[in-house]
Amino acid sequence: MRNLICIISILALTLSVNAQKLVDSEVPRAVKSKFAEMYPNITSVKWEMENGKYEAGFKQSGTETSVLFEANGAHVQTEIEIPVSGLPSAIIEYAAKNLGGQKIREAAEITSADGTVSYEAEIGKTDYLFDANGKLIRKSADSSDNDDDK
User: Is the pTM for the entire model greater than 0.85?
Assistant: First the structure.
């Protein structure tokens, strides 16, 4: 979960941001309502604040998932952890060619509210964001390296 939170931070911001844990009563009704509409069968949710946005973290069918919302309940993006083998081959090739043989530790598929898909690859202590075609968008140091959710 810690890496999933970091991935959301990188996508939501160009600067590093620390997540602030929230209790259910601190989450706006509109956000909880939209979440319940999107995921009616999910009952165990961890809420966090990410630079003014509300993040719901949970497991869906055993897969780490997080969803980001505006305070008014508008859906921003959904992130699902995927196996490294699920990344587009261009991303795996980029890592092999440009990162001295470092292994991709974790991967995620991110879908924005408008349907745009991107991918996150954690390599060493850096998170790399790629577009759906495997083109590097940006990289950022992993600022959320704690084991709270393990």
Answer: no
